[in-house]
Write a structure and sequence with these properties.
The complex is a heterodimer of chains A (291) and B (140). Chain A is α/β, with parallel strands linked by helices. Chain A is 63% helix and 14% strand. The longest helix of chain A is centred in the last third of the chain and has 75 residues. Chain B has two helices and eight strands. In chain B, helix 1 packs antiparallel against helix 2. The radius of gyration of chain B is 16 Å and the shape is globular. The chains are: A alpha/beta (291), B alpha+beta (140). Chain A: It is found in: Cell membrane; Membrane; Thylakoid.
Chain lengths: 291, 140
């Protein structure tokens, strides 16, 4: 049986752990608020971009001559999976659920006889994917040093992907991230980036007939790469919010568990203490009686 | 005066939103002014200064990369970068210019070089407009 001192030490260490998890939970909550605001602030841009591109793309697809980003290479043999995860752990199943989702998708693609390559954003996803696909990870973007994710980071990633596309390294590019539904629900999501997909809009009779300057093709050629960056940016922000949401609930659980443990340990501690006092009393009394 | 609903959006946030009387936009093929009742129109932007004319003093923003969309609902500008002109510091601008110079140097095709050169010229103009006194940003 553990001595009283051992029990005291154990309780103290659990208390220290609880303090840490509590602090982490509060930090995560504060950061979550900021991340959520950033994700919301980015939404209008992405939405408008999509509307305009949708209009343009609908016209282009009918006209033929559409750029590579819109049509893809016409094949779907080689897939590039862009897996965006967090840089840190201690966030529940956040990283694992994205990775699991991507891995399942990759395995089913491989089973269909396709080639799969990975582009990892975030160290955690890389570390997990490396175990299953040691030779298929072609890029790792580490955002650990980045304090707040700006458009620049997304732009850099988009530039790398465009470079790979130019080299003909893949036919289809799909992005994996966790969609931030609420603080307690983050849904791993797959979004196809290349070829770009836009919601088919029914031909609207009231839709204004735009004039373009310069012409539509040039605008589209300029906007599609930008859109790639915007979509990635949106995903990174969503991911960030999901990460903190996940971390917050994980730390909340940890704090509660620590509380339970402290209660249990304190009970054992008190019982042991009582038992010892009783034992000592018995010893004294029986000693006195023997005299 | 008829007012024009105007929104200036950057990927990070909504920079400006409100009714104005006129906006001068640096379009890729020349600056143009937009007032209420403008025909539906989509134009690319060049790096430059966007001027908003409203009730008070004119407001100036530095915008870079993106496009402007005019429709019945008003004018929307999506710019990769949009900042009040006063907040632009010479250092950041010089960095952009340096990047653009590198683009010109690294361009592999004539077309790309021309495009990069145009960007560079636009940026130099902005630098000149904002900081007339500054040493004409690393002119070779």
């Amino acid at each position: 049986m553990a001595s009283l001192k051992d029990l005291r030490n154990r309780i103290a260490s659990v208390k220290a752990t609880q303090k840490i998890t509590k602090a982490m939970q509060m930090v995560a909550a504060a950061k979550l608020r900021r991340a959520q605001a950033a994700a919301e602030a980015a939404r209008p841009y992405a939405e408008r971009m999509e509307t305009v591109l949708g209009n343009l793309a609908a016209g282009m697809l009918q006209g033929g001559q559409a750029p590579l980003l819109l049509t893809g290479t016409g094949k779907s043999e080689r897939h590039l999976l862009l897996v965006a995860t967090g840089e840190r752990g201690l966030c529940g199943a956040f990283n694992s659920s994205i990775v699991r989702f991507a891995r399942e998708k990759a395995l089913s693609l491989i089973a269909d006889g396709k080639q799969v390559k990975f582009f990892c954003v975030g160290r955690k996803g890389y570390e997990q994917l490396r175990r299953t696909f040691p030779n298929d990870i072609i890029e790792l973007v580490d955002l650990r040093a980045v304090r707040t994710i700006g458009f620049k980071e997304a732009n850099d990633i988009a530039a790398k992907i465009l470079h790979l596309l130019d080299q003909g390294a893949f036919d289809v590019c799909t992005l994996f991230y966790a969609h931030f539904k609420s603080v307690i629900a983050q849904v791993p999501t797959a979004q196809q980036l290349i070829p770009a997909t836009f919601e088919a809009r029914a031909a609207d009779a009231d839709a204004p007939v735009y004039e373009y300057e310069p012409d539509e093709e040039e605008i589209l050629a300029d906007l599609l790469p930008r859109n790639l960056a915007v979509q990635i940016f949106k995903a990174l922000l969503e991911n960030q919010a999901s990460f903190y949401g996940s971390q917050m609930s994980a730390m909340d659980n940890a704090t509660r568990n620590a509380g339970d443990m402290i209660k249990k340990q304190t009970l054992i501690y008190n019982r042991t203490r009582q038992a010892m006092i009783t034992k000592e009393l018995i010893e004294i009394i029986s000693g006195a009686e023997a005299l | 005066m008829a007012s024009l609903p105007f929104e200036l959006v950057s990927p990070e946030r909504l920079v400006f939103s409100g009714a104005v009387s006129e906006v001068i936009v640096p379009g890729a093929e020349g600056e143009f002014g937009v007032m209420a009742g403008h025909a539906p129109f989509i134009a690319m932007l060049k790096p430059g200064i966007l001027t908003i004319k409203g009730d008070g003093a004119d407001r100036r923003y530095f915008v870079r990369g993106g496009f402007a969309e005019v429709n019945a609902a008003g004018l929307t500008i999506l710019a990769e970068e949009a900042k009040p002109a006063e907040e632009i510091d010479a250092g950041a601008l010089a960095q952009h210019i340096k990047d653009a110079e590198e683009d010109v140097r690294d361009a592999t095709s004539d077309e790309a070089r021309q495009r990069a050169q145009r960007q560079l010229d636009d940026l130099r103009q902005v630098a000149l407009a904002l900081h007339p006194g500054a040493p004409a940003a690393t002119a070779h």
